[in-house]
Amino acid sequence: MTEITGLLRRDVLKRLGLVAVAAPGLSLLSACATGGGSEEGGTDVASDGDAKNPFKVDAAKPLNVVIFKGGLGDDYATQVHEPMYVTAFPGVKIEHEGIVEIGKALQPRFSSGTDIPDVVANSGTDLMDTGALAEAGHLQDLTALWDAPSVDDPAKKVRDTIMPGAVEAGLVAGKPYLLPYVSTTYGLWYDAELFKAKGWTPPKTFEEFKTLAETIKAAGLTPFAYAGKNASYYAYWMILISAAKIGGNKVLLDIDNLVDGAWTNPAVEQAAAAWAEINTKYSDKSFEGLIHTEVQTQQNQGKIAFYPSGSWLENEQAPSTPKTFKYGLAPTPSVSSADAMPYEAVRVAAGEYYFVSAKGENPQGGMEYFRQMLSKAGAKGFTEKSGSLTIVNGAAEGLTLSPGLTSVFAAQQAAGQNVVTTSLFENWYKELETELRRQTNNLMYGRNDAKTFCAEMQKAADKAKEDAGADIQTRAS
Amino acid sequence: MRQGRYPFIIGFLAIPVVLYAVFVIGPYVQAFQIALTKWNGYKAPEYVGLKNFRDLFEDEAFTSALWHHLWILITLPLATLVIALFFSFLLNVGGGAGKSGTMRGVRFSGFYKVIFFLPQVLAVAILGVLFQAVYRPNESGMLNGLLAKVGVAPVQFLNDPKLALWSIIGVVVWQGVGFYVVLFSAGMSSIPKDVFEAAAIDGAGRFTLFFRVTLPLLWDTLQVGWIYLGIAAFDMFAIVQVLSVDQGGPDNSTTVVALEIYRQVFRYSELGYASAMGVVLFFMTLTFAALTLRVTRRERIEF
Amino acid sequence: MKTNAETTSTDLPALPADAQPVRKGAASGPGGGKPAAKVASGVFSGLSHVALAVWALLVIVPIVWTFVAAFKTNAEIFGDAWTLPASWHFDAWGRAWSDANIGRYLLNSVFVVTISTFLTMLLGAMAAYVLARYEFRGSKLIYFMFVSGMMFPVFLALVPLFKVVQNLHVHNTYQGLILVYVAYSLPFTVFFLTAFFRTLPTSVAEAAFIDGAGHMRTFFQIMMPMARPGLVSITIFNVIGQWNQYLLPIIIVPADQDKWVLPQAIATISTSAGYRQDWPALMAALSMAIIPVIIVYIIFQRQIQAGLTAGAVK
């Protein structure tokens, strides 16, 4: 305790400048906090085609990088991307912040227009509303980045070195504001070793699914489970993917575009009914009270057969996965033989959004940081550190891939052109998304039937449309 | 009255009032202004008058939150105070009659008070993690682990819409009881012995003593406790956020106004709408406190 | 050492004059014979102990369970809740200490709460004293202004508050955290202490004035010592409240992890333990957060109870 009293004596006097601090505060009372800066965006950043420094970064300016410290950690930034940036501009200062609750920490900084970070990994359960950020002119238009020469091959533009659809996935109100850096494949995850030992194969249709589930149940496992407490969206992904498989990607486009009756589309109702049947018959109601890591750990312990998730799962679970457990990915089963898409179709989405602040001190630096991230070395390092694949083509070459990522590649090969599109309404209309979480649990745990689910969601979508008014967002593909 | 009165008053009030005006009143006054606007926190707010307040009462989540506050307002103070009274009664007069007919507390009552008060010093963040383990809906939960041993199927404390809110209120009661036990014990021990003795000579039993003597004398303390707990009932934010399924679920069965405000601010960037909710919450709390004080005053006159 | 309880019992105001003795006729007649009463009394005492012991267990068990869980493996934590760990090893504690930096956050919390509680008490007592004992224009308004702060949901003020903190350049600093803690603790402190100062007898202060003591001296040398019971209890309130404050630090010191306080750290650790799958380390971190608080509480429990006593029996 002596240390503290020492501190006290030294600091109290310094910190007690109360009167001096508070007096100027009076004038603040009349100054409204709702200023928030001008609505004009920041600087226009252009690329002059220089392969070394296309955005004319001022190496004397520090770069403030905020990374979401969640499932991917932030080692990829501190140990790969930031050092690359420093190598490109020796002596440059990087201010790194690893934050879990992005919105709580950053939103006040953006709204007050002070201390704005240059690069933000906007992710986690507490991410910021990019629609609102874009509207206020906080997001840097990334057109110049996509058109800049790539780090690995200056003859190629950056946009030509990444997976198709990635630029589009980063559109907000029709402008390329976001960098969706991670390529994620979705489906049902299972323990390939266990299945081999038991002689089980992932089902190709829901009929097979139910038959296999009976067998699995008899073997003493829970056939299917998701975590209702904080990850109900894992379940609605399955419903949406199945809906797209039944009726084609247009079903999901209609939902994103808030088309009248998009949710009452028979394809959505069929998909909802199919998944609700699986969860009410072949799962357990206790899973509604667990968080995702708890359910995932149970799967690692051999208690759960199928778990719906994205390809980050294997890395997230690495610490508690036994050596004998080998992650495998299966596409969602076909609902009927009349489905528009084949069984092999999977959702591959560019996600995990990063943005550069237009009103930050150093947007040029932010763009250059992105260009480094999108180099093969940057992407490879990211995959090594985080266990997730990126949108950068061919970046995983030469890496020894884990069983899970190997099965992801195999699934992508099998799917070919049959890719289920990603859903953008989740980011566009947050209230609609919250309602969907609620209604998904109501459906999956037997409180509502599929018809009610669709009707409730349609009501919420209509409300979203009314609230959005002129700000409604659209996508063509 | 005396010389130097005003310099003294101003000197003593200046710093607290300025500090308070700058950090508390200022922001809140602005919050009232913001409640009349549509504002996403980034660009200039747009004045919409009372529209936010009109929308509020069509907002299903908000109206169910209001109902929850009503239930919490009734059950939380009642449960906490009744349990606390019961225990302080046992602690102070549960030991039977001592020499000369006075009532004694049970042995180890000091130890019990120390233990009971313990939850008060735990932060809500800690409480949340603790009770996740207590309520876990399978045999790895403390409660369901016990139930499993006697062959009862696991109870879905936090994920049955009918149980969830009560389970969460249970945590708040668990935390609060000890505080009021200490408070009431203090009140009881300050009641002069001769009051008890007089009553005992009249042949009053232990329970008569409690209801006829102890309770009326603790009336003031009870009122204070009721106000504290009532104000707490309008908050509940942290505990609901940490413990509930899907933050306020399942199916909005545990949501509270504070959580809806939080959601509007941090998820939907609807700062104006959130402020309107805050204004409603403010007036509800104010009304509650004013009513309670009114009732208190009337009780005092009768009493 | 003399406890507060002994000193305060004499300061207690007398009971309200209208406190009722038992109404005539309400009392039941004498019970059965003496032996029966004794037996009944013994049974009652036994039952009392059972009830009290059950509640004591309800309080202790979850906390002890957490300590024990810090020694378990992930698999054991998700197994039967009522089994002991197969082996008692301290790895998780090491991980919690080194990775989660609990020690640092503890010290931060102690530092911030010590200063801010002291300032809260000083400023709160000054304001409450003036509001309670002096008549002047606007005193009602100032009092109401302070008290109304008790009813306001804090995070409604977040964005404007952040703006203020920014403009004063105390964002991400201890100063900012302390100032905001003090400001937000004032309503309850002023409310409570104003009521308390009103209950103190005026004669002593009058006498002091006649002796020629100034306002300042009267306050610091006479009123403050007299108000000690009230001051102690509200100090306890503030220490507990500020120690457990969760929302304000997230707004004031979001970025600078070196300045984080304990609840903020615990919340973050619990989310990231969720991400990182290290449940034993989470339990160890929780235990480390709980143990010092419990130790301090045990040391000061007499003062805490005495303080509450003083505050309760106004």
From TrEMBL, chain A:
<keyword id="KW-0813">Transport</keyword>
<dbReference type="InterPro" id="IPR050490">
    <property type="entry name" value="Bact_solute-bd_prot1"/>
</dbReference>
<protein>
    <submittedName>
        <fullName>N-acetylglucosamine transport system substrate-binding protein</fullName>
    </submittedName>
</protein>
<dbReference type="InterPro" id="IPR006059">
    <property type="entry name" value="SBP"/>
</dbReference>
<feature type="signal peptide">
    <location>
        <begin position="1"/>
        <end position="33"/>
    </location>
</feature>
<comment type="similarity">
    <text>Belongs to the bacterial solute-binding protein 1 family.</text>
</comment>
<dbReference type="InterPro" id="IPR022386">
    <property type="entry name" value="Chitin_NgcE"/>
</dbReference>
<keyword id="KW-0732">Signal</keyword>
<dbReference type="InterPro" id="IPR006311">
    <property type="entry name" value="TAT_signal"/>
</dbReference>
<dbReference type="GO" id="GO:0030313">
    <property type="term" value="C:cell envelope"/>
</dbReference>
<dbReference type="Pfam" id="PF01547">
    <property type="entry name" value="SBP_bac_1"/>
</dbReference>
Automatic annotation (TrEMBL), chain B:
<dbReference type="Pfam" id="PF00528">
    <property type="entry name" value="BPD_transp_1"/>
</dbReference>
<keyword id="KW-1133">Transmembrane helix</keyword>
<dbReference type="InterPro" id="IPR051393">
    <property type="entry name" value="ABC_transporter_permease"/>
</dbReference>
<keyword id="KW-0812">Transmembrane</keyword>
<comment type="similarity">
    <text>Belongs to the binding-protein-dependent transport system permease family.</text>
</comment>
<dbReference type="InterPro" id="IPR000515">
    <property type="entry name" value="MetI-like"/>
</dbReference>
<feature type="transmembrane region" description="Helical">
    <location>
        <begin position="226"/>
        <end position="244"/>
    </location>
</feature>
<keyword id="KW-1003">Cell membrane</keyword>
<feature type="transmembrane region" description="Helical">
    <location>
        <begin position="114"/>
        <end position="135"/>
    </location>
</feature>
<dbReference type="InterPro" id="IPR035906">
    <property type="entry name" value="MetI-like_sf"/>
</dbReference>
<dbReference type="GO" id="GO:0005886">
    <property type="term" value="C:plasma membrane"/>
</dbReference>
<keyword id="KW-0813">Transport</keyword>
<keyword id="KW-0472">Membrane</keyword>
<dbReference type="GO" id="GO:0055085">
    <property type="term" value="P:transmembrane transport"/>
</dbReference>
<protein>
    <submittedName>
        <fullName>N-acetylglucosamine transport system permease protein</fullName>
    </submittedName>
</protein>
Automatic annotation (TrEMBL), chain C:
<dbReference type="InterPro" id="IPR035906">
    <property type="entry name" value="MetI-like_sf"/>
</dbReference>
<keyword id="KW-0812">Transmembrane</keyword>
<protein>
    <submittedName>
        <fullName>N-acetylglucosamine ABC transporter membrane protein /chitobiose ABC transporter membrane protein</fullName>
    </submittedName>
</protein>
<feature type="transmembrane region" description="Helical">
    <location>
        <begin position="50"/>
        <end position="71"/>
    </location>
</feature>
<feature type="transmembrane region" description="Helical">
    <location>
        <begin position="141"/>
        <end position="162"/>
    </location>
</feature>
<feature type="transmembrane region" description="Helical">
    <location>
        <begin position="105"/>
        <end position="129"/>
    </location>
</feature>
<dbReference type="GO" id="GO:0055085">
    <property type="term" value="P:transmembrane transport"/>
</dbReference>
<dbReference type="GO" id="GO:0005886">
    <property type="term" value="C:plasma membrane"/>
</dbReference>
<feature type="compositionally biased region" description="Polar residues">
    <location>
        <begin position="1"/>
        <end position="11"/>
    </location>
</feature>
<feature type="region of interest" description="Disordered">
    <location>
        <begin position="1"/>
        <end position="33"/>
    </location>
</feature>
<keyword id="KW-0813">Transport</keyword>
<feature type="domain" description="ABC transmembrane type-1">
    <location>
        <begin position="106"/>
        <end position="300"/>
    </location>
</feature>
<keyword id="KW-0472">Membrane</keyword>
<dbReference type="InterPro" id="IPR000515">
    <property type="entry name" value="MetI-like"/>
</dbReference>
<feature type="transmembrane region" description="Helical">
    <location>
        <begin position="279"/>
        <end position="300"/>
    </location>
</feature>
